[in-house]
Amino acid sequence: MDSSLYWMGISFAILSGIINNFGIILQKKVVNEIRAEVKFGRVLIKNPLWLLGLMMQLGIGTIFFLSAQVYIGPALIPGLMASGLIILAFGSVKIIGETLKKDEIIGILLMIGAIVLLGISGLSINISEQNLLDLMFIFRIIIFSLIVFISSIICEILQRKIEKYSGILLSIFSGLMFSLSNFWVSLLLG
Fold this sequence. Notes:
Layout: H1 3-33, H2 40-46, H3 48-72, H4 77-81, H5 83-96, H6 102-120, H7 135-161, H8 166-189
Helix pairs in contact: 1-3, 1-5, 5-6, 7-8
Transmembrane segments: 6-26, 47-66, 72-93, 105-125, 137-158, 165-185
Protein name: EamA domain-containing protein
Keywords: Membrane, Transmembrane, Transmembrane helix
């Protein structure tokens, strides 16, 4: 793969994460400013800042995500999109007025290091090299999708029953759903 295309894919994945999480910050700012007695949904739909945040998440961020899929494949994108969490953390401090704890700052620094290492790793997967009509390939896709989906359902059920591990199980559930969507997007683009 051409080096410039690889770095363009890396940039698109990072931009997707940043734009997506900045959209979340804008939406969170609007939600925090709404009084409790107001009809919540109607106020959100009429607020241009909230709509801009939604457009950044679902529109602009998605375009960069799909572009990154084309250039570097599905392997690196989730890790690179995590760069947006750094923006989410600092944006929450600046725009919303939240505070960061010492361990959160250490986590951000570790994430920055991981993103740099992912970027220079040179890893990419060419999503157009597989014959999508091969029966064994289709069988593997179905098995993988079912395993991930069933695992997600199990995590969802367990997080309702075991309150102590609810946060961890929801995180695993979210990661599994994100990996499944990332997997299917790469197939559809291939």
